[in-house]
């Protein structure tokens, strides 16, 4: 015979299996499924309806929304030479060495601050001494501003000034290659072209979204140039410009992303470019074909804001292929957004006069000394 305690325990278990107690109510468990199952099933039906559209969106659409804009700066740093002349050979290069270590530290750090303020994806620099000064600059950007740039350079063939051009670039970009181009003996014999002693080609891979979520990339070919100076040298610059166009024409015609930028030393103002001018030839306007033409973004800057030089000239330009101006339907790509000349990154106090800048540069107080006689030009491209 079961004990009273055991019978009491079994009755409690039976009651628990038959009834569900609510305040003031006793509900048989047979009623519970009608109340509980909808509460369990409805979320299972509703949540997929909310979540699935996000999951079945094309990966490139979701990825492009996360993409950082691509921006590129061109800046002639004007004799960016450190205080050590033991690695210089020409008299001019030795003469342009920064007078002291303290003055070099000031200029390096001031230029790093300006670059950090703009924080472009790629910086194309002209009139740099060598790769070492670019490395000093990238270290200052990391040390003072926590911005990690990688420097790229190949020594130029300008043995008179010993000036180079170079790149800085930062994450999330990758560099696929850097190179210099040449002309053939036949091209030299034609006397239609003239070597660019100071140029560098960089091929960059630009993410179009979050790479961990299947984002795509685009390749951008960037040609950084520094053409022969002075107005009277335009005939020579036209020959250099023909070489530029020869190098990039096939890539532009094929729809690739091409940017040619730097110090063109052109006298063109940015209003209407003469097809047979140095800049017009670099853009490809001198040929009947239009499929290989570059577009000068300077025409998209308001006239009063176009000056890129102390002499109120527009020497510095950014030329782009048409592929960077239009949005390709159905896939993310880089599309031009804006271009600006950033005089504010260079001018300290009042704008230097030519005599102050070139005759008494180091005699001015640090707070009044402009960083260069050129002003940076920055173009921005969005992912769309």
TrEMBL record:
GO biological process: DNA repair
InterPro entries: Endo/exonu/phosph_ase_sf, Endo/exonuclease/phosphatase, TDP2-like
GO terms for MF: endonuclease activity; exonuclease activity; metal ion binding
Domain Endonuclease/exonuclease/phosphatase positions: 73-334
Cofactor needs: Mn(2+); Mg(2+)
Keywords per UniProt: DNA damage, DNA repair, Endonuclease, Exonuclease, Hydrolase, Magnesium, Metal-binding, Nuclease
Record flagged with keyword Hydrolase: yes
The keyword Iron appears for this protein: no
Gene3D superfamilies: Endonuclease/exonuclease/phosphatase
PANTHER family: TRAF AND TNF RECEPTOR-ASSOCIATED PROTEIN, TYROSYL-DNA PHOSPHODIESTERASE 2
Protein name listed in UniProt: Endonuclease/Exonuclease/phosphatase family protein
Originating species: Stieleria varia
């Amino acid at each position: 015979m079961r004990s009273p305690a055991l019978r009491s325990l079994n009755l409690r278990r039976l009651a628990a299996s038959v009834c569900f107690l609510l305040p003031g109510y006793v509900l048989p468990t047979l009623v519970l499924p009608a109340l509980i199952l909808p509460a369990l099933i409805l979320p299972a039906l509703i949540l997929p309806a909310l979540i699935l559209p996000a999951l079945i969106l094309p990966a490139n659409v979701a990825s492009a929304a996360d993409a950082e804009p691509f921006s590129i700066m061109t800046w002639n740093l004007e004799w960016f030479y450190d205080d050590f002349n033991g690695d210089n050979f020409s008299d001019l290069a030795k003469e342009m060495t920064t007078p002291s270590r303290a003055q070099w530290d000031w200029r390096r750090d001031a230029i790093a601050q300006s670059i950090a303020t703009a924080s472009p994806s790629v910086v194309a620099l002209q009139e740099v001494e060598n790769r070492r000064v670019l490395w000093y600059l990238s270290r200052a950007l990391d040390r003072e501003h926590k911005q990690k740039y990688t420097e790229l350079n190949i020594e130029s063939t300008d043995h008179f000034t010993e000036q180079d051009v170079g790149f800085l670039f930062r994450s999330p970009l990758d560099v696929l290659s850097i190179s210099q181009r040449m002309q053939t003996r036949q091209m030299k014999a034609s006397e239609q072209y003239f070597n660019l002693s100071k140029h560098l080609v960089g091929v960059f891979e630009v993410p179009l979204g979050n790479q961990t979520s299947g984002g795509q990339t685009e390749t951008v070919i960037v040609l950084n140039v520094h053409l022969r100076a002075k107005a009277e040298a335009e005939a020579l610059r036209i020959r250099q410009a023909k070489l530029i166009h020869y190098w990039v024409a096939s890539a532009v015609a094929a729809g690739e992303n091409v940017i040619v930028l730097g110090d063109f030393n052109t006298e063109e103002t940015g209003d209407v470019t003469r097809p047979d001018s140095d800049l017009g030839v670099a853009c490809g306007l001198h040929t009947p074909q239009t499929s290989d033409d570059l577009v000068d973004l300077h025409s998209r800057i308001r006239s009063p804001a176009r000056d890129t030089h102390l002499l109120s000239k527009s020497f510095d330009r950014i030329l782009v292929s048409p592929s960077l101006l239009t949005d390709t339907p159905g896939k993310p790509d880089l599309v031009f957004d804006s271009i600006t000349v950033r005089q504010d990154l260079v001018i300290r106090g009042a704008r230097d006069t030519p005599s102050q800048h070139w005759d008494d540069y180091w005699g001015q107080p640090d707070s009044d000394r402009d960083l260069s006689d050129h002003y940076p030009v920055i173009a921005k491209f969005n992912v769309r």
